[in-house]
Design a protein that fits this description.
CATH topology of the largest domain: Aminopeptidase
Number of helices: 14
Strand content: 15-25%
Order of helices and strands: HHHEHEEEEHEHHHEHEEHEEHEEHEHEH
Oligomer: single chain
CATH architecture of the largest domain: 3-Layer(aba) Sandwich
Largest sheet: 9 strands, mixed
CATH class of the largest domain: Alpha Beta
Bound molecules: 2-acetamido-2-deoxy-beta-D-glucopyranose, zinc ion
Shape: globular
Structural class: alpha/beta
Length: 472
């Protein structure tokens, strides 16, 4: 599917955009700008002074902020919160908005069967594997406007920065907007990138996946204009090596960069997440009539397992191992009734896959022994996903470092403890991530905030990194 706008509307957009950028960059000429020097080195062309009034390297920060603000208005909850759930009306409008901006940046736009959106700037050696960047724009209920969005709109702006500089990519550059990074609607995180990475398990699961309104994934996708053909979800799979590199720009979602006053985080690894669903079934009964020795309390089994999760995580001996019981439901949930059923959802992560898997084994052993001890039935112990961690590619780390240095920006190497689409892109492409500071590390809440100066720094680092990788 490609971008379709009436030509007249397109023209108006274009003129408005051109005027804005001329306004924003007029008078800009700084031959000592390290970015310009770098561009000259990378592109092999001198930076053309006759174009320097309209073709600046500077990020059009004002326009980028405007786009971030506009995108935030496509929300199902009032500002400052943002709620944008997969394949809802607001999600579809937001997708159209992104496709328009890609079109205005001169990218050729296409979409796959689940709505991953690709915008390509063709390089002068178009047969080489492209270099890609991107992130997501879906937003969990009552969250903020920067998570993911900075890595989509920022990447498109990085393309604009490179174009204005006169840079010519050798490998094509591609911007990707991933479908459903957040698990809100179908309980599957990184749905688009996971499928691109060729997950057979996900492909199978999507045939039967429904949301909490019993709307199937396929029907929801069709209502948004995707998955039109029978069985075409497999076409989303990418071959290993489809991209020469993938780089994602993202807010840190943690406090370190802001606290330490550092401009750029260079991610060396993404922690490996796993999630487990557990159900215990017990005898239930009247809270007064059933005496303590005769109980099979499914609620206490759940409570005991939650403490066991914490214990096994601590016993791993590593600060990088974490485990959380974020959901613990009891049935029938009445003060005078012994819980007859309990349901837990456990999230555990580590940068070391083996260590995390050992923790999962121990949690399983505990679930079995707790059930036995308490005379309840372990009705379900379902490992929903158990993903490997991802390491950033060394040459991409080097490219991000040298870009930061060229721009005279402070940087630090760090681990991403949240996961991102990059975790899955790492299965088909060398990968790297750039973090920027965000206010107090807040994320997934309306107070999420990043200074436009920090975003612009991230965009510049991304632009230079993409430029370097494109010429490799
Ligand atoms: C969900 O929809 C399917 C197919 O339309 C139907 O067979 C099933 O009974 C529904 N389940 C519930 C809980 O409504
Ligand atoms: C780089 O940054 C440092 C510290 O902010 C500053 O002192 C120095 O002048 C900058 N150098 C250049 C070339 O911009
Ligand atoms: Zn995100």
């Amino acid at each position: 599917m490609s971008l379709k706008l009436p030509p007249s509307l397109m023209l108006i957009f274009y003129v408005v955009l051109s005027l804005c950028s001329i306004y924003a960059v007029s008078g800009y000429k700084d031959v000592d700008d390290p970015a310009i020097r770098t561009m000259e080195e990378f592109s092999g062309y001198p930076f053309d002074e006759t174009h320097s009034n309209t073709q600046s390297l500077s990020v059009d920060a004002e326009n980028l902020q405007k786009q971030i603000d506009e995108l935030a208005t496509f929300s199902d909850t009032p500002a400052p919160s943002v709620t944008r759930v997969l394949y809802t009306e607001k999600d579809v409008i937001a997708r159209r908005y992104i496709k328009n901006i890609m079109g205005l940046a001169g990218l050729s736009v296409r979409e796959d069967a689940v709505g991953n959106i690709f915008g390509r700037w063709e390089g002068y050696e178009p047969d080489l594997a492209p270099v890609a960047s991107g992130s997501h724009i879906d937003a969990i209920p009552y969250s903020g406007k920067y998570d993911g969005v900075v890595g989509v709109l920022g990447a498109i702006e990085a393309i604009n920065v490179l174009r204005r500089s006169g840079f010519k990519p050798k490998r094509s550059l591609e911007i990707i907007m991933f479908t459903s990074e957040e698990p809100t609607r179908f309980g599957i995180s990184c749905l688009g990138s996971r499928l691109m990475a060729g997950s057979e398990m996900l492909l199978k699961a999507l045939e039967t996946t429904v949301d909490n309104q019993n709307i199937s994934f396929i029907d929801a996708a069709r209502s948004a204009g995707y998955a039109q053909e029978e069985n075409d979800l497999r076409s989303v799979f990418l071959k290993k090596g489809s991209y020469a590199a993938f780089v994602e720009l993202h807010i840190e979602q943690g406090p370190l960069l802001e606290e330490e006053g550092i401009s750029v985080g260079i991610v060396t690894a993404i922690a490996a997440p796993a999630s487990i669903k557990v159900d215990f079934k017990g005898g239930g009964g009247h809270a007064g009539a059933v005496l303590m020795p005769h109980r099979n309390d499914a609620g206490l089994a759940a409570a005991e397992l939650a403490l066991a999760v914490e214990k096994h995580v601590f016993d791993s001996g590593s600060i990088d191992t974490v485990g959380t019981v974020g959901i613990l439901d009891l049935h029938p949930r009445a003060i005078n009734s012994i819980p007859s059923k309990s349901h837990l959802e456990i999230d555990t992560r580590d940068i070391d896959e083996e260590r995390r898997n050992k923790v999962i084994e121990k949690i399983h052993e505990s679930a079995v022994s707790i059930a036995k001890k308490r005379g309840v039935r372990l009705a379900e112990f379902n490992i929903i996903n158990q993903d490997p961690p991802a390491l950033s590619d060394v040459s991409i780390i080097e490219a991000m470092k040298s870009a930061s240095k060229e721009l005279n920006l402070t940087h630090k190497l760090m681990i991403s403890r949240a996961y991102h689409d990059s975790l899955f892109m790492a299965r088909v492409s060398p990968m790297g991530m750039i973090f920027i500071p965000c206010f107090k590390g807040y994320s997934h809440r309306p107070e999420e905030f990043s200074l436009i100066e920090d975003i612009s720094n991230g965009v510049k680092v991304l632009a230079l990194t993409l430029a370097q990788l494109s010429l490799k």
